[in-house]
Amino acid sequence: MACLLRAATWRLLPWRGYCSRGTKGELNESFVEALKAVVGSPHVSTAAAVREQHGHDESMHRCQPPDAVVWPQNVEQVSKLAALCYDQGVPIIPFGTGTGLEGGVCAVQGGVCVNLTHMDRILQLNLEDFSVLVEPGVTRKTLNTHLRDSGLWFPVDPGADASLCGMVATGASGTNAVRYGTMRDNVLNLEVVLPGGRLLHTAGPGRHFRKSAAGYNLTGLFVGSEGTLGLITAATLRLHPVPEATVAATCAFPNIRAAVDSTVHILQAAVPVARIEFLDDAMIDACNRYSKLNCCVAPTLFLEFHGSEQALAEQVQRTEEITRHNGGSNFSWAEEAEERSRLWAARHNAWYAALALRPGCKGYSTDVCVPISRLPEILVQTKENLKASGLTGVIAGHVGDGNFHCILVADQEDPEELLRITTFSKQLARHALALHGTCTGEHGIGLGKRQLLQEEVGAVGIETMRQLKATLDPRGLMNPGKVL
Q1: Residue 321: left (phi > 0), alpha (psi -120 to 50), or beta?
Q2: Which residues form the FAD-binding PCMH-type domain (predicted)?
């Protein structure tokens, strides 16, 4: 009976062929030819290796490859691809750099992966308006290299050199969020190809104003939508002046509470810190080994300040007073760009430093965010729970905005260990929810946090999201199986 039901379901999708066992097959040859007619034969692949490459991200979610991968060259081709797939009932999975951490690119129902990296132009730079228009293949490092001599930069920094439109889709943030905000605060307009091929400019074509009271916030609707509502084909982003001077610092603490209390006190004292990152002792030890640092193996804050020389001197003095009051020691300042870059490269490589603790194993990162006042409580408890779990793991986080991660490293072929990771991560997420926080500060919901999203926003919140999804994507073909 189960096989009959499965076959009946898949008969609704004329674009597929299935073997007698009811397993997924390949796209019909005629459909593949139709894809090639849109983007050209060199820009379509059904090769197993290419499909597998596009069926996973950096997460522990198992690879689920699409049936084909296409590389459109412009928005017109994206629109035609969306219309073709939607007409034939083919799922559409947008793909950027594949650096996500929640399985957002897994093709759980097969379909066509639309790799947008060939659309990599910086279309318009408005220096006087502090904005830039980019295609989805432009990464944050590429943009900032382009801006190098302009006096402006784009500060949202998740660590990986992710595509900017992918960062929009996942609602990314990172180390600079405490001062400059997340992607939600830095997106002015989006060009989106809707399911079926229609083109939407969320704030109106060509507009790049700083604020508006005109109707619903369509731009905000697509930030963090994880490819479930449309394909983002261009983004207008807010830029910021490059600071006159920059100073970075590290400071070690006798325990986690002292480090996190310092974070809270620095923020309460209105010190305009640009970055404030926490690494526990295990994370510092891993970074020392991986990035050849010699930091004291203890709970540590990484800080950075932006501003004028005079302002920085005041910020440094006030911060040092606060950290010393909380037992901070080994306070070390880095003013030279090379030394600052080395420190932050080590912080950005924390993921790979953690993986190096168990070569050949996979990593999983939790991603909770709580109100600042509850941060000491949850971090201390999380460290105790991590020790009790017996898992290999470290803690790092953007504590300036209440967001932190446990990076857990496990043997993906060990079901018992994977079950312990699932249990630990759900326990942590529910602890964050109990403290009026969120189950994800920046990674998104993807495949694994759909139940937690329901617990966070409630039945009415989920039903409202489902209604929005059904209105924009009535056939449920945009990145199916994610978020809802």
Answers
A1: alpha
A2: 62-242
Burial of 292 (0-12, 13-18, 19+ CB in 10 A): exposed
Shared domain for 361 and 405, answered yes or no, is yes
Q: Are residues 162 and 129 in the same domain?
A: yes
Q: CA 96, 235, 233, 86 torsion: positive or negative?
A: positive
Query: Which domain CATH number covers 77?
Result: 3.30.465.10
Cα 240 versus chain centre, distance: 21
Total domain count for the chain?
Answer: 2
Q: Is residue 464 part of a domain?
A: no
Query: In sequence order, what E strands does 127-164 have?
Result: 131-134, 152-153
DSSP three-state, residue 422: helix
pLDDT mean for each 10 residues of the chain (484 residues)? 33 37 63 98 97 94 96 98 97 96 95 98 97 98 97 93 96 93 97 97 96 95 98 98 93 95 94 94 95 92 93 91 93 84 86 94 94 94 96 94 95 94 97 98 95 97 98 97 96
Same-domain pairing of 119 and 151: yes
Same domain, yes or no: 297 and 235: no
Tokens at 171, concatenated: 């609602």
- C-alpha 449 chain-centroid distance: 14
Handedness of CA 365, 368, 374, 378 (dihedral sign): negative
Would you say residue 198 lies in a domain? yes
239, 356 contact by CB (below 8 A) = no
SS3 content of the chain, % helix, strand, coil (to 5): 40, 20, 40
Closest CA relative to residue 481, chosen from 453, 452, 448, 456:
448
Structure tokens at 238: 């807010």
Which alpha helices (H) appear in 349-414, and where do they start and end? 350-355, 375-389
386 is in which domain, residue-wise? 245-434
Residues 6+ apart with CB under 8 A from 134: 121, 122, 123, 143, 164, 165, 234, 235, 237
- Residues 328 and 300: their CA atoms lie apart, in Å, by 9
